[in-house]
Specification:
This protein is 73% helix and 0% strand. The chain is mainly α and 183 residues long.
Length: 183
């Protein structure tokens, strides 16, 4: 191997290590919103954890492309949305829906304060209303709320023009309001 080939290989390794570090930091910083989004999209904690792990694995496999990515958070969420969609496309896999967070089972103890119980009920009502929306409407609301993305970032994540994202958001919020009022 020539000196220039060795330097090129070392440079590729350094870029890949830097990409891996950047990916790990970004993934860590958005993990709560990402898991919450997946939780709502796939319907329960076990499936959300599986989709979350698949998202990280796919991002890791594609980390060499990070230099070409303009917004790493959007890129990660785009991959996560694909993992959630793929999760439902698997033949024979029923969508399991849980309206109670399995990680919150300890909160269901007898010593719950009334305020905590009321808050849990409000969350369950919102979750049920959100589940009544179409998947593409859920995605937009969750990207805005959980990922705290701008409309432009959401448009990039779901590959739609910004105007369509804003229109879908308005319609989804209207449907969500109507569902909440009916509850």
């Amino acid at each position: 191997m020539s000196m220039s080939e060795s330097q090129a290989n070392h440079g590729d390794h350094g870029r890949q290590r830097h990409s891996g570090d950047l990916l790990e930091r970004t993934f860590y910083n958005c993990q709560d919103g990402l898991f919450g989004t997946l939780y709502y999209l796939v319907g329960n904690g076990d499936d959300a954890r599986e989709a979350f792990q698949e998202t990280f694995a796919k991002c890791w496999r594609l980390r060499r492309n990070i230099a070409e990515v303009t917004d790493l958070k959007v890129w990660i969420y785009r991959i996560a949305l694909g993992a959630a969609r793929d999760f439902h496309d698997v033949a024979g896999r029923p969508r399991r829906t849980s309206l109670v967070d399995p990680d919150a089972s300890s909160l269901l103890a007898d010593d719950l304060s009334q305020a905590d119980a009321a808050r849990r009920e409000q969350i369950a009502v919102v979750r049920r209303a959100l589940m009544r929306l179409r998947p593409n409407e859920q995605e937009i609301i969750l990207l805005r709320q959980n990922a705290q993305m701008t409309y432009e970032q959401i448009a990039q994540a779901i590959n739609l023009p910004g105007g369509i994202v804003k229109t879908r958001m308005r319609l989804a919020l209207r449907k969500l309001r109507e569902a909440l009022e009916a509850s």
